[in-house]
Specification:
heterodimer, A: alpha+beta, SH3 type barrels, 2 helices, 18% helix, B: alpha/beta, Rossmann fold, two-stranded antiparallel sheet, 7% strand, globular
Chain lengths: 73, 592
């Protein structure tokens, strides 16, 4: 599944990043590297954003970017 | 020796820079405050060194324009040592960047925000880290300038950095508890954060513009100081030339401009509180959906909010945007956001058409925001940029920081008034007091009147067939505060009615920004594009001014000719854009 399908409270593991290199670098820098554990802290009703907590940051990811992050529970 | 300050955004690099150099680099609770490199001499051990504050970098593979600028500055000086600034909370990710950027250089690791890290159960031992990494490691918190300089001087004996980021054992580092407070969770929800922000905005406007608020009383006091006290003293001067120059020209005009200082500071106070509290990054996330629909990005909210302070500074912050197209669109929209320099113009003129200046200012600010969004919609080509952003922590703004920032803004305003605006008002007064034979004369026979009479037609369709108004309005291209000062100096009170006052406000609102902002835009989007934007904005400002006048005077029917002209220009522009876009698509297809 991809991050845009996650629900509030899900604890997920990042399995792949399908983004281009600079965006992937930004995601890794925020703690969303392959194999990392992330917690979905809030998904608004319209699902345009996903708020996640990684080991080193609290970040917000837009829906289009969240579709590029492959995750598993 | 040049020393770079490098690290993730919002790590504390600029705070450290200010501490070492007594500088005034902008700091704030936002990822991406520093957008350009800043160099200044500061203390280094017992001597001096040049410190270079760089924008924050997330990854060696730089994404945004400011990250690329920071990377380029580092690559240009491969031998310069580095002070790598890292928050204790995100030390693990910072170390990866530390080794990626600083390999081969002398480097030291500076830890920040340790107190709150420890409060949340974290642990870090600088000595153990130093032995693990083989570089100097020190905490910046709680150290004065001399102590920081002594720590920084350990760079001289540091070996060049080698190897990769090691895993940190529990004896060196234990991460803090990762929890969001109840307030932080509440503020993620739009139905809580948006009303809170609107209430904050309403409070900001009321306390800034209402005559009942502190800003209003202080304004009245300052104006009285200039016109009654200083003006009274000036009226005792024997020389009629000097007396006229001061008592009837400069002092009332300066009083008009400086009188707004308390209200401008009130506006800046709210901007600083918004930025420092961490609310701004939440606002950026919440508005991303709406802004993407008009071709902008949630991250542009920082630039747009800064635009309420100063357009030039706001344009520079667009460097933090990842997408060049969004940056160009934001730069185009920013002049419509009413900066603090337009405040004196609005409040001077609004007394003519609104009994309550608070409501008049609110209307004009709302019109500006609407115009900015309309400009974004009209230039939107349907492209979207991907939104990824780190949320700044919520914190109570520090009193010392708020007071220091306000004093800095006051100093900047007074310096600008005492230099650019005073020079302009002095030159205007002299030109308006003498004819070409250098004899004292009325304003109507002066050099200024002869030179500017040809401009009378510019505002004739708005009921102001008057070269003085045209001169005052166009002087806003140098500094917007000049408009209010020039009107006061040349006309005294605004001599026309409510419709003309409103039309002039709309002109100032929609006109090209001042030369500082145009120069900032030239740096970001290129000189040709910046001048094109300025020309388009000035040209369209005249149309909007006439439209506003016609709407006020006779309603929509009376405004129909001007409205038709504006719509025709917009349609022609859109059609031209559509043709260019299809030609580009066709050329790309052929090329493939």
């Amino acid at each position: 599944m991809t991050l845009d399908e996650a629900e509030t409270g899900d604890v997920l593991r990042v399995v792949r990043l399908s983004a281009e290199s600079s965006l992937a670098g930004r995601l890794r820098a925020l703690g969303m590297n392959e194999g990392a554990r992330i917690t979905v802290i809030f998904v608004p009703r319209r699902r345009r954003l996903v708020y996640v907590r990684t080991a080193s940051a609290t970040a917000v990811v837009g829906r289009a970017a969240a579709r590029l992050i492959g995750v598993e529970k | 020796m040049k020393i770079f300050l490098v690290g993730n955004p919002n790590a504390g690099k600029s705070t450290l820079f200010n501490a070492l150099t007594r500088g005034h680099a902008k700091v704030g609770n936002w990822h991406g405050v520093t957008v350009g490199t800043l160099e200044r001499e500061g203390v280094f051990g017992e001597g001096k060194a040049v410190y270079c504050d760089l924008p924050g970098i997330y990854a060696a593979d730089a994404r945004s324009m400011e990250e690329k600028a920071a990377k380029a500055a580092l690559d240009a000086s491969p031998a310069s040592p580095v002070l790598f600034v890292a928050e204790c909370d995100s030390l693990a990710r910072a170390l990866t960047l530390f080794f990626a950027l600083c390999r081969g250089r002398r480097a030291a690791l500076v830890l920040t925000k340790k107190r709150q890290f420890v409060r949340r159960g974290g642990f870090v031992d600088e000595g153990a880290l130093e032995r693990l990494l083989h570089v100097p490691v020190f905490c910046a918190e709680g150290k004065n300038r001399r102590a920081l300089a002594r720590e920084a001087a350990r760079l001289q004996s540091a070996p060049p950095l080698s190897g990769g980021a090691p895993a940190m054992p529990g004896s060196c580092y234990i991460p803090a508890r990762v929890t969001l407070s109840r307030t932080e969770r509440l503020l993620l929800k739009g139905y809580v954060a948006v009303p809170l922000f609107l209430a904050f905005l309403a409070a900001a406007f009321f306390l800034t513009f209402s005559p009942l608020a502190p800003g209003g009383w202080m304004k009245a006091g300052l104006e009285a100081l200039f016109s009654d006290v200083l003006g009274g003293l000036a009226r005792r001067i024997h020389s009629p030339v000097v007396r006229g120059l001061l008592a009837e020209g400069l002092l009332p005009a300066l009083g008009t401009v400086l009188g707004f200082l308390p209200q401008i500071l009130m506006l800046f106070l709210f901007l600083i509180l918004l930025e420092e509290s961490g609310l701004l990054s939440r606002l950026a996330a919440l508005t991303d959906g709406a802004f993407s629909a008009v071709g902008l990005s949630g991250r542009a909210v920082f630039s747009l909010v800064m635009g309420f302070g100063c357009t030039a500074a706001a344009i520079l912050t667009t460097r933090g945007l990842d997408d060049r197209r969004v940056q160009r669109r934001t730069v185009l929209c920013l002049p419509y956001i009413s900066c603090s320099a337009k405040l004196p113009v609005y409040l001077t003129l609004s007394a003519s058409f609104f009994p309550h200046p608070f409501l008049a200012a609110l209307l004009l600010y709302a019109l500006g925001v609407g115009a900015a969004l309309a400009a974004a919609v009209l230039t939107d080509r349907g492209e979207t940029s991907l939104f990824v952003m780190e949320l700044a922590p919520l914190q109570c703004p520090r009193l010392r920081f708020v007071v220091k920032s306000l004093l800095f803004q006051a100093k900047q305003f007074i310096i600008r008034t005492a230099t650019v605006i005073l020079a302009f008002l002095l030159a205007s007064r002299l030109l308006a007091s003498f004819d070409f034979s250098l004899r004292l004369c009325d304003v109507g026979d002066s050099m200024l009147a002869v030179l500017c009479r040809g401009l009378s037609f510019l505002f004739a369709p708005a009921g102001m067939n008057d070269w003085r108004i045209a001169y005052a309005a166009l002087s806003g291209l140098i500094a917007k505060e000049n408009v209010a000062g020039a009107i006061t100096m040349l006309c005294g009170a605004f001599p026309y009615g409510a419709a003309s006052a409103f039309a002039l406000c709309v002109f100032v609102l929609t006109c090209s920004p001042c030369v500082s902002a145009i120069a900032a835009a030239a740096r970001e989007v290129g000189a040709k594009r910046a001048l094109l934007y300025a020309a388009l904005q000035t040209g369209s400002a005249f149309l909007f001014c006439y439209l506003a006048y016609f709407l006020w005077m006779g309603g929509a029917l009376y405004a129909l000719p001007a409205l038709l002209l504006v719509c025709a220009c917009l349609l022609i522009g859109k059609r031209h854009e559509g043709i260019s876009r299809s030609r580009r698509r066709h050329a790309r297809r052929l090329h493939r």
